[in-house]
Structures are given as structure tokens and as C-alpha cells.
Write a structure and sequence with these properties.
Strand order of the largest sheet of chain B: 2-1-15
Oligomer: heterodimer
Largest sheet of chain A: 5 strands, mixed
Strand content of chain B: 15-25%
Structural class of chain A: alpha+beta
Order of helices and strands of chain B: HEHHEEEHEEEHEEEHEEEHEE
Shape of chain A: globular
Number of strands of chain A: 18
């Protein structure tokens, strides 16, 4: 485990370097290649050995294989193609990326080759520019260029290209070695392997479409991501408003799972069953707002199936009515001359319990729809279906705390609790502070009611850990899609691999609405199939050959882009007379049903416009602001990234969807810390919502900074983890599905940049805008300081403090921006900042976190983030816990204030080298606040250390500010991860960490210290 | 149970001021009316568009034998007079088609027909009243509803009890009070009968029925009593609902039981208590400017826990469907 971090980082470094090179020039490439080769060889060798030793070999082969294949096919081709940034970006980045992931994972498992390397690696992990600096001089120049790009971009791009390059040369070596190795994939063994170099292995995916037909598509077996297949399907369907849809597969337990677009397909399905189903993932609450009829049609198909299968229960009358609209849509007007015989209708399935009476009723109603066009009939169908109480509710079996069977329903509005058919509780998204799961438990932390002082956590038992995680994911996605204006940014490099980093990666509903409002194509014609689900031939199924893959993807990219920009370039796929549909935002707004929605929408739009107009042009080739905002989908991002190649700065900006301004301080943020202690200090002070916004700005009132805390809750968490989590958890984490727990703070609009909209009040919008403007203006000057900070890990705190002083804003964690982003989820506080809106509904408000997100990209914004974080008001509170004391509480899960839940992680992924971990968590906690002590008893106790002599330490600091009921709370969380083979004196480490924390923040009290110890035990766990 | 009920201020509109509520009501009315108009076309017919009413006579046994929570003497004559007036309002003033069932002396509570059936759309759920003595009330009711061509669903489960008085239909969903007369199983069966709608349960800690302290005053408007149990119940309902409801708080719980209709050519109609009974509450109703307000005297039946809604089953026969 220890090695993981190191190896990963190494890989990434390579990737970055290599990536950078190709972009710049061929020469650069060559150079980089050389370097890469050398490094790669060494590393690979080491890895192989390690792998063999551990028996993880099987993973390796695949990896190698991929690399080989790629290197031969894509690298050369892709590089030259750079001229078409968009297409390339999509393709190259997408596909190659998987490699990297694979790499990282494997590496993780392997033992460290060189401790030194590891250390170095850690730094780069932080994503900051600092990492770049660290890199060897020869590469520096190139690196610098790359650095300009935002961390994400670099990663992706680098991953793809870099990986390829790496592999090219190392290939030979690797192969030889691998062959010699014991467990090699069949592929390797097969004589054909040489051939493969030239050819990627493709596999045929079968996708069941909503009309029951089958769509087949070839994808590259190893590296194709879910997105690729999904785009292929959407292309086949001619679907532009694709964000409501997704692909599902059946996992090994025959349970339906959503295919994550950002991950490799192979990784997810974990079997050779390349069977998928296309379906509605997010049911639009108001289908009439969909822009295109074809989208509504597909939604109808899904709902017909839902209704017919009983998944969407409805009454007899509703069955009949829906059925009649279906008939009208599919058959047109009822023809009295040739009355459809009842037996014909009985061939169609309208309801789970269909009878003659219903069919007669359907026929009767069908007659009354005379003159209705298919599109109208579909709309009527949807207008009725959407009112059904179970519309869009995704049900999950669970038990409540008393073991009573219940159902948990996830929907656009929140989480519903059913017992039998009765709704017994409901938790609207605004009420939920945090969603987490651990093992087979699923928890939601509820915002305190008017009369209550503390949050409460409600737990449910799921059947198993998988279903708990699945439920959690669905919640995260639904919340993000329906409540956020922009998805939270993908987790960037994280120091700890605790918990799942899964986040919704697609566009949110707000974004997709905006995007679809820009759809500018004639309404596509499409054929409505009968409910009989007669399968038709799949002539159109495109077969993608390896070589072609690149170009094809490019197409996708374009299409995607087209959506956003309403490009005229988009190929017209429509034949015949089509109605030219163009929807304006206003139209959409008018359609909004609820005032709130309208307001939100308007607000978002106006905000977007504003920010667009007002935002200072970051760089000449500045990508359209709208694009940036709108593009949460990876495809678009990539496009932008490609552009970046030409214009580095722009890229950086684009990398973060939210931020419009270009800045790369984010990278800097990454700091290598050699000590890992997680400390959370929280102070609460009565504070005004405005603070967050202002924080970035120098102009911001100093008063805010000052500790006004009435309630000071300081939590220090010192986590000593023996095993280092992979430096770049993103990839690793994404891959590993084994994480047993994860958290998500739904209310935190962290990802939402300026686009956030106050839900109810328009006036507030204006305020926000103004504030935003201010921020932008102010922020600019601050920028320079950030990058510097990043480079110095150890001094994070001090630097931060200094900076904060300078800015008057207390920005403590500039370096940690990335972390913050991540941490934002963990930190509950951010959600609450009602800076803009004092109301209780957090969503509407612009939270500090938002700014944080934007921060990395935009210089000015960054400070905001920091500023927010920085606003630490120290409240010396008596509730300090003695560090010296032995762990008081062993907690599995903290019921009320589970801050540490995220800290524990057991890494058990099939794909990832499997390390069996035993976890030991010790929590020191101040007695004060929420009764954490109630938590379940500690999990496991062992502590065997693992191999390797190297000690790796990482310190993460999170500062979060929360406004709760007039009290602002600042929480600093320090996380120190110590990884090493040798025994670590935890007590000492802990004491040291706490001591340091106290020194750094004298005014704050230590609320909690959590020691988390992970030991590698055995090979497998799951 | 599964969760702790909490209500966030954000989600709930808790204005204590009636005026404010009314303002909101007016403001939100547009929205609602839009929805209503949609509803007309769709399967969920507009809320309150009643065409028929089923009522039943008052047996002489009511005076002595009807169940009651308080000891009060009922003046049978006056009760009958009041009831006749009530029926007259429905029939003459509002133009509903009234089906009048004969009283049954063996069923002293039979006048309170609401408890015997829940009708929504085309479906009628024949209940299983919580009070043993009232079980046979459903027989005649069932026949009457059958004659109206409704789809009859019967509650045969012997573990289930449900009084119609515990069922609040808001036009978008059901709330079922879990009371002395209604249990979980009964609510489940109701949920099964009306699959289109969400059915949420609300504990009724005090009072006989859920509707003993609340009722609908319009689409999206809940009239609620000001007692603590009533307010609690409202909060629960608001939390459980995906929809937003305005509330109209009246000082007297029992006055919160009104009959709302939305009738062609008449618009919003509200049958409510008289000023003689609850002067303060009536003042509140009088602020509903858009409603046709019809005070209906209910001084006698209330002594046996009969409220305004109890005395009729309202049905909307939508000719289009």
C-alpha cells in the first residue's frame, strides 16, 4: 500500500511530461519519450517484479497490453492531429486516460520500488505546479507549459498521451519481462500479441434500446470508457438531450448498475458480459420543458416500460389513459372503419395486470384523441405520467434502524421513505446535510429543524455494502443533477484515499436545460416503434475499428459541442420536412411550473450572462463562457483541453468547469506534506453570509475574519494511516469500487460556481451578481501569491496565514484548494453559508465553496475559496481534548458528527490490486458537541505494518466555514497520513500533530482527533 | 421509525398571520389555476369539481347512541334541520346531484357517510370503519356508489380499519391520519386503491380524525386549526409532501373542517362554520376574497363529533373520461 502513492505519482509525472511534450512539438516529444522510456522501463520492471511477487500479475498484463496497443496505434496518429483540438481532445484524452488509471491502480498495489521516488511522487500528486517544478530539469520547460493547464487537464491529457508514449518504448522491455513472468494474461501468452501491437482489441457491446431493439457497437476492450459507448448510442438515437439518460449493466450479482461515463467499461462490468441497456437516468420533473420531441419520445418509451412492468404503479384509469395515448402516438387516429380488434391491443402490454376491461377502456379513450399528433400524444402521456407519485422515484430496499423493511426512494426532490406503499418520511435535499454510507449502512445527516439545535443522522441498513454504495451513488447523482447548477468538480488529487470520490460527472439539469435551449437543429424525424417491441435490424450499428476510433470520437466531440453552441456545422441528420425548432430561454422559463424553478432558472441564466459579460477575458482564445459553464460533460471538457494545448492558459480555465478565469494556482495547491495528521478545528462565529464572497476580495470587511464565534467547535483530527493512500486518489479512487464508505454533502454547492442561483429571491440574485463582480475585480491582484504557496507543503499553515493577512481575508488553505474542493464535501459547513441568501435553503445560496472551485481556474476566485476557508475564527473554547490521552472512543461510525467517516477506508477493489485492510480508528473527541461517542465500537484492531521502509507522510488541511443559524463555524481539518512499512509510533505522531495544530491555531480548540490505522492483511476482500 | 421527523423552516411556510397567508394564496393562485387547467385535461380531474354528493338521513338513534367523545345532549330535531339545510345547500345552491340514502336506526352514526367511503376520481374505496358499530354503514354506501358507476374497491382485510374522516385528499396526494379509527393497514389499502397518488401517514394524537382539525380550503390551501396537535400534523404533512401547501390557520380546530368545491360558474366555494359557532374563525374565512363563502350551521352534529365534511361523500363524475 505504501508504495501506492509513490508509484502513482511517478506515473503521473511521466504522464504529464510526456503529455506536455507531444503538444508542444515533436522534438519535445522525442525528448520526453526518451526520458519516459528510461523511467518507464525502470518502473515497469519494478512493477512487474512486484506484481509477480504479489500475484497481482493478472492486472498488469492488461495494463501493459493496453499500453502497447495504444502506443502503436494512437500515439503517432493522435499527436499530429492536434490541429483539430476538439476532436482530438475528446478522443485521445478519453481513451488514453483509462490507461493511466489502470496504471495507477496497479502501481498502488505494488510495493514501492524506491522510497525516494515515492516521496517525489507525492509532491506531484498534489497536482500543483510545484509538482512540475519538482520534475527533472530536462523536462521542466515542457512541464511549465503543461503546468499552465489546470491539474485536471494535465492529468487527462497527459494520461492519455503520456501513457502512450511511455509505453511505446518500454514496450519491448515490458513484453520480454512479462512473458517471462508467471501470470500473464492470455493475451500475452498468445502468439498474436505482436499483432496486437498494431491492433487494439475490440469487443462488441450490445445495448438494448428503449424500443427493445439492440444496438451493437464495437469498443476497445480495455480502455473504452462508458462515455464512449454512451455517446455512440446517443448518436445512433440522434439524441441531443442525453443528460437525462444513461446506460446500465448487470453486475456480478445481477443487479442493475449505472455505467459510469468517466470510467472504463471493462472495469465496471467486471465480466465478459458486454450487455447494456439504455434508459432514463433522471426523469425530468417537467417533460414539457424538454426541447426535442425525440427526447420526449424516448422518455415515453421508458415510462411505458415502467408502467407495464409495474415499476411505476398507477390506477386503472391511468393505465387506460396512458395506454390510449400510446395508441394514439403509435397508431394515429382511431379508425372507425377498421376498428382495431381487441386482440390486437391485447398483444400490447400496457399494464402489469391487463384485462379486457382495461383494453376496452383504452380503445374507448383512444377514440377521443382524434387528431392528436404523435408528439402531442407523447406530451399528454408524459403530462399524466409525471403526476404519478412514483414518477422518477428510484426505489431501494432497506431496513430502518429497527429492522423494519422499508423502501428508500431517491427522486428529484429528495429521499423518500416508504413502508409498503405508504410514505412514512421524506427528506428533501435541502434538509440533507450529508449522505454517506459505510458497509451496508446508509446515513443521511439531517439539517436541524427550527427548534432543534443539532443535526441528526438517520441510518438505514441496506442488504449489503454494494447496495449501500449504489444507493449512495444514486443519491449523489440525483442531488447533483437536480439541485446543483453545476456538478461538483471531479475530485482532484487527494491525499487520502478514504472513501469513494465518486461524484456526478455529467451535466446538471440546469445545465442541460440551458444547453438544450441552444439546440438549433431541425427537429429530427424518427420512427416510433410499436409497443410490441418488434426488433428491427440494426443496420446502422456502427462498427468502430481501432484506428477509426479516434476520428469517430472526434465526431462525437463535435456533436457534443454542437449542442452547446448550436453550431450550424452540425450535420443534419434529419430528412423530410421538419419543423425548425428553436427554443429561447425565455420560452423554457415560461414553461416552468413552479415559481421556484422559474426563479432559479432565470437567476442562473442571468447570472451566467452576467458573469460572462463581466468576467475579464482570461486569455485571448478564451473559450466561450457558456461553454465552460455548460460543459460539465467530459467530452466538452476535453475539447477545451485540446484547445488549451494551443493556449495553455485557456485550458486551465476550462479544466474547471466552473471557473471562467484562467489560473493555475490550483496546481500549486498541491502540497507535499510529510506528516499526515488530520485535524479538524472548528470554530463557529455568528457571521453574515456575505463573508464568503468577500473573502477573496481584499476589500472584504476584516470584521468577518475576526473570531466572533459564539460556539466554537474545534475539531482536530489526527489520522495516522500506516498505508498511504494513492497520491492521486482520483483515478485510483474512481477505479476502486471497494471503498466501503463515502460521504457526500448534498447541500454544498461547492461545485457551483457563480452560476448558483438563489432559489427564491430575485433581489438576491442581483446581490450575488454584484458580489461576483466584486470578487472578480478584486481577486485578480491576489492571484500571484497562490502559486507560490502551493509549492511549499510543510508551511501550508503559515503561508496560509500570511496570505490571509495580506488579503485581509484569512485564506489559510490556498494550497489546499484541491483538497478543499474535495473536502468541501466532507466539510459540512460550506453548505450553510447563506452569504447571499439568509434563507435556510442552502442551495440557492452562493457558497464559499463555489468560489473555491472556481478558484483553481481563476486567479481571483481562488482567493475566495481560500478566503472562505481562511475565515477561521478562533474561539478558544474549553473543549480541548487532551492529545496525550489514549483514544477514548473507537468508532465505526459517528452518528451525529461523523467527520471522520471519510477517513476510514478499506481498499478492496477487484480490479485494483487487492489489499486486505484492517482498519483501526481511534477517535479523540471533545465531549462538547454532538455526541460522537455514540458511535459504534471500533472496527478492527490489528495493526501489522507492511513492507517497505519508506515512510510517507501527507498532511491535508481543510478549512471549512459554515453558517448555521447565525453562527459561523470554522473548522480546520488536518489530515496527516503516514505511510510506511516500518512500525510507526502512532502516539508520537499523533501527539506531534496535535501539538503542531495547537501551535498553529492557538485560538482554536481541538475538537476531535481521529486516528485511523490501516494495515494490509491479506489478499482478498470483498 | 425510519426517520426523525423534522421540519425545516425552508420547506415550510409557517406564517402565523392570516393575511400573509391569504396574500400568498392569491399569489400562488395563478400557478395553481394553471395546474388546474392542466388537470382538467388529464387524468387527475380538477380538484373540487364535484358533480354528485351522497348523503344520508339522521336516525333517531343518533341522539342517544351515536358515538361521541364528549357528553352532550343532541337535539334531534335541530340536528335534522341543520342537516336538511346542509343538503339543500349542496343540492339547490350548488347544484350537485344529491343521492340521499335512508337513515338506518340500527346505525346511529350513519349520517356521517364520509367515513364509509373514500372516492377519488373514478374509484371508490369502501372503508372498514374503525368503530365496530359502524361497520354495516358501508353496505348501503357501496350500493349507492356502484349505482354511480364507480370502480368499487373494498377493504376486506380484517386487520385494516379506516375512517374516511382520516383521509385528507389535497388534489395531489393523500394524507391518512393514523388515529383511533384508522390503522396502518387501512392506509396501505387506501394507497393500493389509489396508486396514482402518494399516500403519507400522519399520526393523529388528539381529536377523533385527521379532518377534525383540518381540511382543504382550495387547491394547495390547507385550513388548519391552531391547536398544537393540529400544527404538528400540518408540519408533518408539509414535510412529507413534494408539493407546497399554503395554510390558513383558524383559531378553532373544528372550524378548520370545511367543505371546498370548485364548481363551474361558481368558482371556489367554501362551506364553513357559522359566525354563531366560531366567530373568530369566520373572520378568517372572510378574508378569502375569491371564495364563495357559505356558512353552514353544524351545532348539533358536532356534539357527536360530526363535522361538515362528515356528512357527505363528494364525487366528481368526469364525463370526458
Amino acid at each position: 500500500m505504501t508504495t501506492e502513492a509513490g508509484s502513482e505519482t511517478e506515473v503521473k509525472e511521466k504522464g504529464e511530461e510526456s503529455a506536455a511534450l507531444p503538444d508542444q512539438s515533436e522534438t519535445a516529444k522525442e525528448e520526453s519519450q526518451e526520458v519516459a522510456n528510461v523511467e518507464g522501463e525502470e518502473k515497469e520492471k519494478g512493477k512487474e517484479k512486484e506484481k509477480e511477487g504479489k500475484g497481482i500479475t493478472r492486472y498488469l498484463p492488461t495494463w501493459f497490453k493496453k499500453q502497447k496497443s495504444q502506443s502503436q496505434t494512437s500515439p503517432t496518429k493522435e499527436v499530429p492531429a492536434t490541429e483539430e483540438p476538439v476532436s482530438k481532445g475528446l478522443e485521445g484524452e478519453e481513451e488514453p486516460a483509462p490507461e493511466v488509471n489502470g496504471h495507477a491502480e496497479e502501481v498502488e498495489e505494488k510495493e514501492e520500488v524506491k522510497s525516494e521516488e515515492v516521496k517525489e511522487a507525492t509532491q506531484p500528486e498534489s497536482n500543483s505546479n510545484a509538482s512540475a517544478d519538482t520534475e527533472p530539469p530536462a523536462k521542466e520547460e515542457k512541464v511549465e507549459d503543461t503546468t499552465a493547464k489546470s491539474p485536471e487537464e494535465t492529468k487527462e491529457t497527459t494520461d492519455g498521451e503520456g501513457a502512450e508514449e511511455e509505453k511505446k518504448e518500454p514496450e519491448g522491455h515490458v513484453e520480454a519481462e512479462t512473458d517471462g513472468g508467471e501470470s500473464q494474461t492470455s493475451i500475452f501468452q498468445s502468439p498474436l500479441r505482436l499483432v496486437r501491437k498494431n491492433k487494439m482489441k475490440v469487443v462488441v457491446c450490445h445495448v438494448t434500446l428503449l424500443d427493445g431493439t439492440d444496438f451493437t457497437c464495437e469498443v476497445e476492450q480495455k480502455r473504452a470508457k462508458g462515455q464512449y459507448l454512451f455517446f455512440k448510442v446517443c448518436e445512433h438515437l440522434n439524441l441531443l438531450e442525453k443528460d437525462y439518460f444513461g446506460l446500465t449493466y448487470k453486475d456480478n450479482h445481477d443487479e442493475k448498475c449505472w455505467l459510469d461515463p468517466t470510467k472504463e467499461i471493462k472495469r465496471q462490468i467486471r465480466s465478459n458480459n458486454w450487455q447494456f441497456a439504455f434508459g432514463v437516468k433522471f426523469y425530468p420533473p417537467d417533460p414539457s420543458q424538454l426541447t426535442e420531441d425525440i427526447t420526449r419520445y424516448l422518455l415515453c418509451l421508458q415510462l411505458r416500460e415502467d408502467v407495464a412492468s409495474g415499476r411505476l404503479p398507477c390506477s386503472f384509469v391511468t393505465h387506460a389513459l396512458l395506454g390510449s395515448y400510446t395508441l394514439q402516438a403509435e397508431l394515429g387516429d382511431h379508425e372507425p372503419d377498421q376498428p382495431r380488434p381487441l386482440d390486437f391491443i391485447s398483444q400490447l402490454t400496457f399494464a402489469p395486470s391487463q384485462n379486457k376491461e382495461m383494453e376496452e377502456k383504452i380503445l374507448e379513450l383512444h377514440k377521443s384523441h382524434r387528431g392528436m399528433t404523435p408528439a402531442q400524444a407523447d406530451l399528454q402521456f408524459l403530462e399524466n405520467a409525471k403526476k404519478l407519485s412514483m414518477y422518477g422515484v428510484d426505489l431501494h430496499h432497506a431496513k430502518d434502524s429497527e429492522g423494519v423493511d422499508i423502501m428508500l426512494g431517491v427522486c428529484a426532490n429528495g429521499l423518500l421513505v416508504y413502508k409498503d406503499r405508504l410514505r412514512i418520511n421524506r427528506f428533501a435535499w435541502p434538509k440533507i446535510l450529508k449522505i454517506s454510507y459505510k458497509r451496508n449502512n446508509f446515513y443521511i445527516k439531517i439539517r436541524p429543524g427550527e427548534t432543534e439545535q443539532f443535526e441528526s443522522t438517520v441510518g438505514f441498513k441496506l442488504q449489503n455494502h454494494r447496495s449501500a454504495k449504489r444507493l449512495w451513488k444514486v443519491c449523489v447523482e440525483n442531488h447533483s443533477f437536480f439541485r446543483l447548477n453545476a456538478p461538483e468538480p471531479p475530485t482532484k488529487a487527494r491525499f487520502l484515499t478514504l472513501g469513494s470520490k465518486f461524484r456526478y460527472s455529467g451535466r446538471t439539469q440546469a445545465q442541460t436545460r440551458l444547453a438544450s435551449s441552444l439546440i438549433d437543429r431541425p427537429a429530427p424525424s424518427f420512427e416510433r416503434t410499436s409497443s410490441k417491441r418488434i426488433s428491427r435490424s440494426l443496420d446502422g450499428a456502427p462498427v468502430i475499428s481501432i484506428t477509426e476510433a479516434g476520428s469517430e470520437t472526434a465526431e462525437n466531440g463535435r456533436d457534443h459541442r454542437l449542442e452547446l453552441h448550436s453550431d450550424s456545422k452540425s450535420p443534419l441528420r434529419v430528412h423530410g420536412d421538419n419543423i425548425y425548432v428553436r427554443h429561447s430561454n425565455l420560452m423554457l422559463e415560461d414553461l416552468d411550473k413552479t415559481q421556484d424553478e422559474v426563479l432559479k432558472h432565470q437567476a442562473s441564466i442571468s447570472q451566467l450572462k452576467r458573469s460572462f459579460m463581466e468576467a475579464p477575458p482570461p486569455s485571448p482564445p478564451q473559450p466561450n463562457q457558456w461553454e465552460k459553464r455548460l460543459t460539465s460533460s467530459p467530452a466538452t471538457i476535453r475539447v477545451q483541453q485540446q484547445q488549451v494545448v494551443s493556449v495553455p492558459q485557456t485550458e486551465a480555465a476550462s479544466a474547471d468547469n466552473t471557473s471562467s478565469e484562467t489560473k493555475e494556482p490550483a496546481k500549486t495547491t498541491e502540497v507535499e506534506i510529510e506528516e499526515t495528521v488530520v485535524i479538524q478545528e472548528v470554530s463557529r462565529a455568528p457571521k453574515l453570509g456575505v463573508v464568503t464572497v468577500t473573502a477573496d476580495l481584499p476589500a472584504a470587511p476584516p470584521a468577518e475574519h475576526e473570531p466572533q464565534d459564539q460556539k466554537v467547535k474545534i475539531e482536530e483530527e489526527a489520522a495516522v494511516v500506516e498505508e498511504i493512500s494513492p497520491a492521486k486518489p482520483e483515478k485510483a479512487s474512481s477505479d476502486s469500487e471497494s471503498e466501503e464508505e463515502a460521504e457526500y454533502h448534498p447541500n454544498v454547492p461547492a461545485s457551483i460556481s457563480q452560476s448558483q442561483i438563489p432559489e427564491e429571491k430575485e433581489e438576491e440574485e442581483e446581490q450575488m451578481k454584484e458580489e461576483e463582480e466584486e470578487q472578480k475585480q478584486v481577486s485578480a491582484p491576489v492571484v500571484p501569491s497562490l502559486p507560490v504557496e502551493a509549492s511549499q507543503p510543510a508551511e501550508l499553515m503559515s503561508q496560509e496565514e500570511e496570505e490571509s493577512k495580506k488579503e485581509e481575508m484569512q485564506v489559510e488553505e490556498k494550497k489546499d484548494d484541491q483538497e478543499e474542493k474535495e473536502s468541501g464535501r466532507e466539510t459540512e459547513d460550506s453548505t450553510d453559508d447563506p452569504m447571499v441568501t439568509p434563507e435556510e435553503e442552502p442551495e440557492g445560496l452562493v457558497l464559499p465553496e463555489e468560489s473555491a472551485e472556481a478558484g483553481p481556474t481563476e486567479e481571483p476566485e481562488q482567493p475566495k475559496m481560500n478566503g472562505e476557508a481562511s475565515l477561521v475564527e478562533v474561539d478558544p473554547r474549553p473543549q480541548v481534548i487532551c492529545c496525550s490521552e489514549p483514544p477514548v472512543v473507537k468508532t465505526e461510525m459517528v452518528t451525529i458528527s461523523d467527520t471522520f467517516a471519510a477517513q476510514k477506508t478499506e481498499i478492496a477493489t477487484k480490479e485494483v490490486p487487492i489489499v486486505h485492510t484492517e482498519t483501526k480508528t481511534i477517535t479523540y473527541e471533545a465531549a462538547q458537541l454532538d455526541g460522537n461517542g455514540d458511535g459504534e465500537p471500533g472496527v478492527l484492531m490489528t495493526a501489522q505494518t507492511i513492507t517497505s521502509e519508506s515512510l510517507c507522510t501527507t498532511t491535508t488541511t481543510h478549512i471549512t466555514k459554515t453558517l448555521k443559524g447565525g453562527l459561523s463555524e470554522t473548522r480546520i481539518e488536518k489530515r496527516i497520513v503516514i505511510t510506511g512499512d516500518c512500525d510507526i509510533d502512532h502516539d508520537q505522531a499523533l501527539a506531534q500533530a496535535i501539538k503542531e495544530a495547537k501551535e498553529q491555531h492557538p485560538d482554536m480548540s481541538v475538537t476531535r482527533v481521529v486516528v485511523h490505522k490501516e494495515t494490509e492483511l491479506a489478499e482478498e476482500e470483498d | 421509525m425510519a426517520g426523525i421527523m423534522k421540519i425545516s423552516a425552508a420547506e415550510i411556510k409557517c406564517d402565523e398571520e392570516v393575511d400573509n397567508n391569504i396574500y400568498r394564496f392569491v399569489r400562488a393562485k395563478k400557478e395553481r389555476e394553471k395546474e388546474e387547467s392542466e388537470n382538467m385535461a388529464g387524468l387527475m380531474a380538477g380538484f373540487g369539481h364535484y358533480t354528485h354528493a351522497v348523503v344520508r338521513g339522521i336516525p333517531a338513534s343518533l341522539a342517544k347512541e351515536a358515538l361521541r367523545t364528549s357528553q352532550a345532549e343532541v337535539d334531534l330535531t335541530r340536528a335534522r334541520t341543520e342537516h336538511e339545510a346542509y343538503v339543500e345547500v349542496l343540492r339547490t345552491r350548488l347544484g350537485l346531484e344529491v343521492v340521499e340514502l335512508p337513515a338506518d336506526e340500527s346505525l346511529p352514526d350513519c349520517v356521517f357517510v364520509e367515513d364509509a367511503a373514500v372516492v377519488c376520481g373514478e374509484t371508490a374505496l369502501i372503508t372498514r370503519p374503525g368503530a365496530e358499530s359502524r361497520r354495516r354503514e358501508i353496505e348501503v354506501m357501496k350500493e349507492a356508489l356502484k349505482d354511480l358507476n364507480l370502480n368499487i374497491v373494498e377493504m376486506t382485510d380484517e386487520n385494516a380499519t379506516l375512517d374516511g374522516g382520516d383521509v385528507l385528499f389535497t388534489g395531489r396526494e393523500f394524507f391518512v391520519g393514523l388515529s383511533k379509527r384508522t390503522n396502518q393497514r387501512g392506509a396501505e389499502i387506501l394507497a393500493d386503491a389509489f396508486k396514482d397518488y402518494a399516500v403519507s401517514t400522519v399520526p393523529v394524537l388528539e381529536g377523533l380524525h385527521l379532518k377534525s382539525f383540518c381540511s382543504m380550503g382550495g387547491p394547495g390551501l390547507i385550513i388548519i386549526g391552531s391547536s398544537e396537535p393540529a400544527q404538528k400534523a400540518l408540519k408533518i404533512m408539509q414535510q412529507m409532501s413534494d408539493h407546497r401547501y399554503d395554510k390558513l390557520t383558524v383559531p378553532d380546530d373544528i372550524a378548520a373542517n370545511c367543505v371546498y368545491m370548485n364548481l363551474p360558474n361558481k368558482g371556489h366555494v367554501l362551506l364553513h362554520c357559522t359566525a354563531e359557532e366560531f366567530p373568530e374563525s369566520v373572520k378568517v374565512f372572510e378574508k378569502l376574497k375569491d371564495h364563495m363563502l357559505i356558512p353552514v350551521s353544524n351545532m348539533e352534529k358536532v356534539k357527536v363529533d360530526g363535522a361538515l365534511t362528515c356528512c357527505s361523500v363528494l364525487i366528481s363524475k368526469n364525463p370526458s373520461i
